[in-house]
Amino acid sequence: MKTNNTFHPAPLNIIAMAPNAWDGPWMNRQQLLSRLGSQHNIIYSNGLWSVWDRDQTAWKAASVNGSFRAQDQVLVDHPPKFLLRWPRFSALDHLAMRMAARRWRRMHSRVKNHTRVKNAPRVAYLFHPQFYPYAKKIQPDFVVYHAYDMLNLMPGWNRETEEQQRALLAMADLVVASSDVIAEELAEISGKPVEVLPNGADFDTFCGAATEGCSEPDDLVNVPHPRIGYVGSLNP
To answer: Which residues span the domain enclosing 91?
Structure first.
């Protein structure tokens, strides 16, 4: 829709899945989805609990029925405690994921932040191949795979996730990478074009720290020059 020379994309129902908690370190997942949330209906989920999580403090503290919390223009999913994945038993595992997907679809049908249009297109926006088993169960109109890192170099990558990535690449309508290097690798694997969406920074904030005469922190006063500063997280 175009009004007053401004393009307004039709709202989408987006189910986004990533391994990091929304309340954790602010990464490109939160940066992107919180902005898309101004025009689209977004549910963000880390997926279901599994039977292996039952000894964790977080699982014990979780709600039996689960909940959704509106935060940063996104509905953050807190999955129900009773709905567990059980990979060893395929039928039960797939049933749990189908029930989870139905729960997300039901929430989208009840809460429409930006539109009352019936049957808005549904998008499965997956940030890691581990969520491939959910893809068909979401019953999406479109699938997006967004590779935010060289995931095959990360701890935990194995033959199963390699196969899941190939299957997800084959299914995806859009493949997005955070760098040219990642894009080249995924394009070689899939034979598909890959869009590059680089990570960014709040330039004004970082530049201001260098140019606006900020006072030197007390804990740095005795650190000799030259100094090298680093802002970010460290990863294995």
So the answer is: 2-220
Please enumerate in sequence order all residues whose Cβ is within 8 A of that of 107, keeping only pairs 6 or more positions apart, or say none: 43, 68, 75
Contact by Cβ (8 Å): 198, 183: no
CA–CA gap between residue 139 and residue 80 (Å, rounded): 21
Q: Read off the CATH number of the domain in which 192 is found.
A: 3.40.50.11010
Model pTM?
0.86
How many domains, in total, are found in the chain? Answer: 1
Averaged pLDDT, 122-147: 97
Name 210's Cβ contacts closer than 8 Å, sequence gap at least 6.
none
Pairwise CA distance, residues 62 & 79, whole Å: 8
Establish how many alpha carbons lie within 13 A of residue 51's alpha carbon, considering only the half-sphere containing its beta carbon: 8
Give mean pLDDT, residues 60-76. Answer: 94
CA angle 167, 168, 170 (to 5 degrees): 65
| Helix (H) or strand (E) segment spanning residue 66 | none
Q: 17: closest CA among 167, 199, 140?
A: 140
Instruction: For CA atoms 20, 25, 27, 29, give the dihedral sign.
Output: positive
Is 232 part of any domain? no
3 state SS of 68 = strand
